[in-house]
Amino acid sequence: MIEVIDSIMDFLKRFNPYILGGAIGSIIHRMRTEMSWMAFFKSVIVSIFISICMGIACKDYLMVTNENIIFAACGLSGVFSKLILDEIEQILKLASVYAKSKLGISKKNEE
Predict the structure, then answer these.
(1) Whether 51 contacts 78, CB under 8 Å
(2) Angstrom distance (rounded) from CA 39 to CA 57
(3) CB environment 69-94: b (16+ within 10 A), e (fewer)
């Protein structure tokens, strides 16, 4: 049990700036649009997830060394998290259709 708590605390220490950036981005999004409290809490969770992904991608994949740029990217991704997820969903749907057409899979073959 202590190991689990230690790993959670390590995660929070490591990604705290990204989590904070996503939460602030979600608050900014709430100020710009009208939403219920339940929708706002859902938005905060999604924004934090997207913000952590953006922070990891900037730091490890894009090799951005300036922390301020990473924090700004996390905040922006928090504001636009719903739009980002919608675009990723569209890309995956198109990739699925393309892969099925290249592999010759159709609804008739699946049955």
Answers:
(1) yes
(2) 27
(3) ebbebbbbbbbbbbebeeeeeeeeee
Tokens 């699925």 sit on residue: 96
Residues 25/74, Cβ–Cβ less than 8 Å: yes
Is the pTM higher than 0.70? The answer reads: yes
Question: pLDDT tens, 31-40?
Answer: 888 889 998 8
One-letter amino acid identity for 104? G
Question: Which alpha helices (DSSP H) does the chain contain, by range?
Answer: 2-32, 37-56, 67-79, 81-103, 107-110
The tens digit of pLDDT for each residue in 24-82 reads 988 988 888 888 999 888 889 989 999 999 999 999 999 999 989 999 999 899 899 88
**AA identity, residue 81:** S
Amino acid at 105: I
- Rg value, the chain, Cα: 18
